[in-house]
Amino acid sequence: MTASSALTPKGTGFIVDPGSPRHSRMLGVGAYRPDRVVMNAEIVDAIDSSDEWIRERSGIVSRHRAAENESVIDMAEHAARQALEHAGITADQLGFVLMATVTHPYQTPAAAPELAARLGSTAPAMDISAACAGYCYGVATASDMVKAGSVDYVLVIGVEKLSDFTDPHDRGTAFIFGDGAGACVIGPSDTPGIGPTVWGSDGAQRDVITNRHSWLEIRDLLDDGGVEAAAVPPSVEGVTAKGWPALTMAGQSVFRWAVWGMAPIAQQAIDRAGIKVDDLDAFIPHQANIRIVDAMVKQLKLPPDIPVARDIVTTANTSAASIPIAMTRMLAEGEIPSGGLALQIGFGAGLVYAAQVIVLP
User: Fold this and answer.
1) Cβ atoms of 209 and 132 closer than 8 Å
2) CA atoms 303, 336, 295, 357: torsion sign
3) The model's pTM
4) Residues sharing a CB contact under 8 Å with residue 6, sequence separation 6 or more, in sequence order
5) Per the residue annotation, which of 40, 132, 184, 211 is the catalytic one?
6) Phi/psi of residue 253, each to 5°?
7) Is 286 a catalytic residue?
8) What would the pLDDT profile of 71-115 be if each residue is shown by its tens digit?
9) Are strands 198-201 and 352-359 parallel, antiparallel or unpaired?
């Protein structure tokens, strides 16, 4: 993360003090992208599409895919160790571990306790199921824990192995998703480092992004409904060896909701932090679609000098991992300054959303 030290924050705005007993801030970040890079050309035949169509529709050129035996916990561990090192703390100092993911293949146990054990921590740990907003939910929860004095340090991870839940023949989703992990450490601060979170949900639209089948429906699709048969995904509609129960998305509905609904949420986060849009040193939105990012930039009237994360081009949509992956890269490449102000916003299945202004670590 040293490259960002060459940049100087604008220093024209400061997050307002909400009167908390103590303050919180992001102390370190980390990210992991799997080694395998999948270009659009590898995907187009299965969905009767083209590289040009995918780029025009989403901005995506490539994405990273985890190895067959690489789990969300494996990827999370890489990002978590990097974040701990950047923050300058050890795992035994952690007071809580929060893992945002919707692709851990077990309903129980959660992934977070196993990650904590791998790191050498016995801290309380739990998973957060808030899809693409999960990381921002985790940051908000961790910040409140630290400010209330419940703990001193919280590890927040956003990680997804979406390739396990993507139907390679679904024209609406096969090209969108990628795999990866990002993490941050939240700890105490002398000054406000994380602004108030603006968040919410619209469960009436739960069907626009969802699994094609529930696990109970999968059971009923199997001939005998037995555990042995379920161990190998059958060849039935909507159930594939690489994606069962596969994710589905009503693309146009999601696009309209994000384009017209999320910019006002982002503006509220700016307002509640007590700053102006011109004070920002970075805008790091969830990497869902390049057209959504560009529309939000326009609606927020973001000045052209403010760097904007557009990692969607090379990472595709990594859901809960997209914001910390982008932030880690931007800091490491010197695109944004340590100590500067960044607006981050996540939004996705639920439908759920969350936005906050943070001081960059």
Assistant:
1) no
2) negative
3) 0.91
4) 334
5) 132
6) -65, -45
7) yes
8) 999 999 999 999 999 999 999 999 999 999 999 999 999 999 999
9) antiparallel
